[in-house]
């Protein structure tokens, strides 16, 4: 008679292999593929930031490697944060969500206080000193995602009506988005709104109110954009950038020139023209244009495929999550990365207004990169727990099958000898 310990410790049997879906034994686990995709995106980002920033780095720091070195430091911090998030049980985030949201809202208020918030280029978005500055608006993306997943899960478990799901969440989103708009940072406010709307949509609330709220948000965003001459010029130039090529449409026109000059395979790493100062913010907001110029259509499509693969795998993680909170959390993280990708690439190719949103994992950035890496680590933690639960269930079914048909297993082992 077998003991329970010997049964658990036994090697995989034919029944366990047979219990897997066809081809499952040859498939790489989703956490492994996600980790590889993140690693590739980070390598691409580090290389492209280095090539796009060499000239401006000389003018600012008297060294072509200064910005590249800073990106390397932030990337190292991001990798550490990524590894910690992978190992941290995402269920524990539910207890931390209200504290994280409260701290983030307080930091968004601190940014607006003269003398405490760091003011640059007409915006007050950073706190800290020297190079050790962080953007609380970036932290708001993560805080809102975790809070919304916890809040919606609690309300759905209580079978609360739709208004009790939508109302409080939209108030919190509006508060955070409003503080971000005061910085001003319309692009990040749009991403925060996209996260909340995606999570409400997937939660199963009635779509009518959601679409009305979405229309209201779009209307308010347009109204807010028209109240500022700077944003109004950007919005108007987006409709016809060539008519404003010497003013508000200059960045978009240079971005399109860079993308077009790359042709199929590009001019080669470091061989483009845009990094010589023709394209402002080449290593941040318009890194995709530099990729298209230096790596061509092939390189640009490869980057989009990597980001698309991350989103697609994230959706699979959400559908396979072992619980509702994990599924909602995964959807929020994917909506975050997907909306930033669409807004950044849309601005680079001239189909969306320029808002200053970074390209996830690739654009130069400090807190934005580290916090995005934390989000990716949380997503992989959800995937790992889902894979572990699936293997546990498969193993349990295999053991039940072996107990029901011992003769078949015995004969099968005999044929294999």
Short description:
By secondary structure, this protein is mainly alpha-helical.
Task: Describe the structure in your own words.
The protein is mostly helical and 417 residues long. Helix content is 71%, strand content 3%. It contains 15 helices and 3 strands. A hairpin with a 2-residue loop joins β1 and β2. α3 runs antiparallel to α4 (66-87) and α6 (136-157) packs parallel to α14. It is globular and about 60 Å long. The protein starts with a helix and ends with a helix.
Stretches where pLDDT is under 50 for at least 5 consecutive residues are: 1-25, 405-417
Average pLDDT over all residues = 82
Tell me the Rg in angstroms: 24 Å
**Spatial order of strands in the largest sheet:** 1-2-3
Beta-strand segment tally: 3
> Structural class given helices, strands, pairing?
mainly alpha
Strand content: under 5%
SSE run = HHHHHEEEHHHHHHHHHH
Helical content, roughly?
over 70%
Count every helix, treating DSSP H or I runs of 4 or more residues as helices: 15
Span between termini: 23 Å
List the topology elements.
Blueprint: H1 4-9, H2 14-19, H3 30-61, H4 66-87, H5 93-111, E1 117-120, E2 123-129, E3 132-134, H6 136-157, H7 162-181, H8 186-203, H9 207-226, H10 229-239, H11 250-261, H12 287-320, H13 324-348, H14 367-404, H15 406-416
Antiparallel strand pairs: 1-2, 2-3
Helix pairs in contact: 3-4, 3-12, 3-14, 4-14, 5-6, 6-7, 6-8, 6-13, 6-14, 7-8, 8-9, 8-13, 11-12, 12-13, 12-14, 13-14
């Amino acid at each position: 008679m077998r003991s329970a310990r010997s049964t658990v410790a036994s090697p995989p049997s034919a029944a366990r292999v047979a219990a897997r879906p066809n081809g499952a034994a040859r498939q790489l686990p989703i956490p492994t593929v996600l980790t590889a995709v993140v690693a590739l995106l980070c390598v691409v980002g580090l290389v492209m930031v280095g090539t796009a920033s060499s000239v401006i780095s000389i003018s600012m720091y008297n060294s072509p490697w200064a910005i590249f070195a800073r990106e390397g430091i932030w990337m190292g911090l991001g990798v550490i944060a990524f590894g910690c998030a992978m190992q941290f049980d995402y269920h524990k985030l539910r207890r931390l969500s209200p504290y994280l949201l409260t701290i983030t809202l307080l930091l968004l208020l601190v940014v607006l206080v003269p003398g405490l918030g760091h003011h640059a280029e007409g915006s007050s978005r950073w706190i800290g000193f020297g190079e050790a500055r962080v953007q609380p608006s970036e932290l708001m993306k993560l805080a809102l995602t975790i809070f919304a997943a916890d809040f919606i899960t609690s309300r759905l478990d209580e079978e609360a009506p739709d208004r009790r799901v939508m109302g409080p969440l939209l108030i919190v989103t509006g508060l955070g988005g409003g503080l971000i708009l005061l910085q001003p940072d319309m692009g990040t406010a749009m991403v925060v709104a996209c996260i909340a709307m995606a999570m409400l949509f997937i939660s199963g609330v009635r779509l009518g109110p959601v679409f009305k709220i979405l229309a209201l948000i779009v209307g308010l965003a347009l109204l807010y954009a028209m109240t500022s001459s700077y944003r109004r010029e950007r919005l108007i130039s987006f409709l016809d950038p060539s008519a404003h090529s010497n003013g508000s449409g200059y960045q978009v026109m240079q971005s399109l020139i860079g993308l077009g000059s790359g042709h199929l395979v590009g001019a080669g790493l470091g061989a483009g023209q845009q990094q010589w100062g023709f394209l402002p913010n080449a290593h941040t907001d318009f890194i995709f244009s530099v990729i298209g110029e230096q790596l061509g259509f092939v390189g640009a499509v490869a980057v989009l495929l990597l980001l698309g693969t991350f989103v697609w795998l994230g959706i699979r993680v959400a559908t396979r999550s072992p619980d509702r909170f994990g599924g909602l959390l995964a959807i929020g993280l994917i909506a975050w990365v997907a909306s930033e990708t669409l807004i950044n690439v849309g601005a680079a190719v001239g189909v969306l207004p320029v808002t200053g949103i970074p390209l996830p994992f690739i654009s130069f950035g400090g807190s934005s990169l580290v916090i995005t890496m934390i989000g990716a680590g949380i997503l992989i933690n959800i995937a790992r727990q889902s894979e572990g639960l699936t293997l546990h269930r498969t193993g349990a079914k295999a053991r039940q099958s072996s107990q029901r048909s011992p003769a078949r297993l015995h004969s099968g082992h005999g044929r294999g000898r």
